[in-house]
Amino acid sequence: MKGLDTNILVRYFVQDDPEQGEKVSQFLEKTVTEGENCFINNIVLCELVWVLESAYGYSKAEITDLLEKILKTSLFNFENKDAVWWSLREYKKSKADFSDCLISRQNKTYGCGETVSFDKGVKGVEGFVVL
Q1: How far is it, in rounded angstroms, from Cα 11 to Cα 29?
Q2: Which residues on neighbouring strands pair with residue 38, listed in sequence order?
Q3: What DSSP letter does each residue of 42-85 carry, written as one string?
Q4: Which pLDDT score, from 0 to 100, does residue 115 have?
C-alpha cells in the first residue's frame, strides 16, 4: 500500500499543474496495475477539503461529490472509512466543517461521550456540545 499526501490528491483532482497531474495519474495507474492500493489518512482528507475550499473556491456540494467518489473508489483505503462516511453525512447537513465532523466521530470512537467546542457551526452535529 502507498500512502498519499494532500498535494498528490489536489494535483490529481484539480489538475492545476499539468505536469504534476500527469505524474500522479501515471503513479495511480501503475499502482492499480501492480494490484496495490493507496492509503488516505484523516489528516489528508481534512487538508484536502480545506485546500479545495480556501485555495480553489470549491462549494460544499462539489466537495461532498468529490469525497463520495473517493470513498467509492476501490483504489483508496482509509484510516476509518465508516467514520469518514458518517462525517460526510454530517458535513452535508450542518454548518460544521468536515474536519469538525470527523473530530466528533473519531472522539466518539475513542470513548468520548461528547466533544466540547466554542464553534457555533458545530451546533446540531451529533457528539458536540457548544459552550
Answers
A1: 15
A2: 2, 76
A3: HHHHHHHHHHHHHTT---HHHHHHHHHHHHH-TTEEES-HHHHH
A4: 93
pLDDT of residue 118: 93
Q: For the segment 82-118, what is each residue's pLDDT rounded down to a tens digit?
A: 999 999 999 999 999 999 999 999 999 999 999 999 9
Closest to 62 (Cα-Cα) out of 49, 72, 71: 49
Residues present in the chain in total: 131
What pLDDT was estimated at residue 126? 87
- The one-letter amino acid code at 64 reads T
Residue 36 DSSP symbol: -
The string over 59-86, giving b where at least 16 C-beta atoms fall within 10 Å of a residue's C-beta and e elsewhere, is eeeebbebbeebeeeeebebeeeebbeb
Q: Which three cell numbers stand for residue 114?
A: 461528547
Q: Give yes or no for a contact between 107 and 86, defined as CB atoms under 8 angstroms apart.
A: no
Amino acid sitting at position 99: S
Check: pTM over 0.85? Answer yes or no: yes
